[in-house]
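Why does residue order matter? Because the sequence determines the fold. Keep that principle in mind as you read this record.
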Amino acid sequence: MSLLETRGLTGFYGDFQALFGIDAVVDAGETVAIIGANGAGKSTFLRAIVGQVAASREAVSFDGEPIGGLPAHHIVRRGIALVPEGRRLFPSLSVEENLRLGAYSARPGPWSLEKVYALFPALKARRNAPGTALSGGQQQMAAIGRALMANPRLLLCDEISLGLAPIVIRDIYAALPEIQREGVAVVIVEQDINQALSVAARVYCFQEGRVSLSGEPAQLSRDAIRKAYLGV
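Structure:
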C-alpha cells in the first residue's frame, strides 16, 4: 500500500481551476520530486494535500485512509507536515520557539529539539536569535526543523532551494538521507531539475495543472523532460 495517493485531485482558487485530475503516488520512505514551470500547480498540489486548498475526501488518501478536505491540523496529527515556500517563520519568536511550535500536535516519534539541532548545528548556535535574524539558508533549516518537530511520516517541501546559494542548497540536501533514515518520506517541489533528479526515486512533471510526465529519473530522457516541462 502506498503511503500517499491522489486520484483525480482538483484544486480551485475561487472560480480559477489550478489542478485538473492529478494522479500521484508516494511510497513509504521514498523521495518524490515535483517539477514544472511557475504556475504549473506544484504548490497548489501540496496545499491540497495538507488541507489548505479544498479537495474531495476520496481524492487524497494517506496510509489507506481518505483525508481530502480534512482541516489542516487534523492532517498534521495524522503525520503530514509542510515546509512552506518562503519559510514563514514567526518574526516575533526565537529560533527555538519557532521549532517548538512544530511539536504542538504532540505526535510521538524520534524528532526532538536536540535531534533537529544535531541535524542542523547552525540552528543550535542561533537558538535564541529571532527567526528573521537568520540567513536565508538557516531560515530554511529552521522551517524544515519545525516541520520535523511534528514527527511526520511524510514531509512536503515547497521550493526547498529557492533563492539559496549553491553551498547552502548542498547542505540542506545532505540532510535528506538522515531524515529518511527515520522513516520519513519526502516530497520536494524543486525548480532545479538536476537537483531534483539527483535525489528522487520518482519524478512528476506538472504543466498547467496536469501531470505531463512521470517516472523514475533513470527512465526519463532529458528531451522528454524538457518537452513535458515547457510544453514544446
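The first strand starts at residue 4 and ends at 13.
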